[in-house]
Design goal:
With about 250 residues, this protein is α/β, with parallel strands linked by helices. The protein is built from eight helices and six strands, in the order βααβαβαβααββαα. Helix 4 (about 115-125) links the parallel strand 3 (about 100-105) and strand 4. The longest helix is centred in the middle third of the chain and has 24 residues, at about 75-95. The chain starts with 14 loop residues before the first strand and ends with a helix. The protein binds 3-methylbut-3-enyl trihydrogen diphosphate (2 copies) and magnesium ion.
Length: about 250
């Protein structure tokens, strides 16, 4: 547990998901090319992963690249791929020494081979780590994930592995990329935009949302802790009344 955090551990989110937005605007404000924002953004990723691990967060999902981001200028996409490759290379030892398991969600097949191989290699090498899952959303879109899940379900139906009556929420979850991971308790979005931008559409059904105007390259431990204090104060009712929640305790 981080020294100065005074939150009842039972009030901490198990799974935090972050929409890391605002790199381009951060750079623009400084008269720099967008790439500089992405570079600073990677440093912040390293800091926040370390901090979440220290606090005892069990799953951290980072939205690093969306299906729509493929439509950005080719040069920017290339830089982002290079940064991802370098990040994986730089952080393998940190993941190993901190017992962090890397996972990825998204249409990974679309990544260039050299990045995909690095990613798969890092996932393999950290596979037995138990303390935290670092889940990178790469080439990820919630709609794309749902469509891919539907296709897999139909295949299994056609090959008689499942029947129509087997299809329920639990089964459906197991066909999503997030199979085996709990839904996010808290979704943080930086840079002030109030939208999900195709992030975890199915899984976010009851997630708490926290939006900060801070740009991702300026996000830090203090901002993370602010979000955690805010989350700890909330009452998650899941459709019930407040009184019902008290009765349950
Ligand atoms: C987030 O920052 C990083 C990615 C989407 C890859 P942006 O690049 O979207 O930065 P803004 O929103 O243009 O400021
Ligand atoms: C969301 O940010 C995707 C990531 C953070 C990877 P965008 O910058 O792509 O989202 P929009 O376009 O503002 O909705
Ligand atoms: Mg953006």
């Amino acid at each position: 547990m981080s020294g100065n955090l005074k939150i009842d551990p039972t009030r901490l989110p198990h799974h935090i998901a972050i929409i890391m937005d605002g790199n381009g605007r951060w750079a623009k404000k400084r008269g720099l090319p967008r790439v500089f924002g992405h570079k600073k953004g990677v440093q912040v990723v390293k800091e926040i992963v370390t901090e979440c691990r220290k606090i005892g967060i069990k799953v951290l999902t980072l939205y690093a690249f969306s299906t729509e981001n493929w439509n950005r200028p080719k040069k920017e996409v290339n830089v982002l791929m290079e940064l991802l490759y370098n990040y994986l290379e730089d952080e393998l030892n940190t993941m190993l020494s901190n017992n962090i398991r890397l996972n990825a969600i998204g249409d990974i097949a679309r990544l260039p081979d050299w990045v995909r191989k690095k990613l798969e290699d890092t996932i393999k090498r950290t596979a037995s780590n138990k303390e935290m899952v670092l889940n990178l959303a790469l080439s990820y879109g919630g709609r794309d994930e749902i469509i891919r899940a539907v296709k897999k379900i139909i295949k299994d139906f056609e090959s008689k592995k499942i029947s129509i009556n087997d299809i329920n929420q639990e089964l459906f979850s197991n066909y999503l990329d997030t199979k085996g991971l709990p839904d996010p308790d808290l979704i943080i979005r930086t840079s002030g935009e109030r939208r999900l931008s195709n992030f975890l559409l199915y899984q976010a059904a009851y997630s708490e949302l926290y939006i900060t105007s801070v740009l991702w390259p300026d996000f830090d431990k203090k901002e993370l802790i602010n979000a955690l204090y805010d989350y700890a104060k909330r009452e998650r009712r899941f459709g019930l009344t407040s009184d019902q929640l008290v009765e349950k305790k």
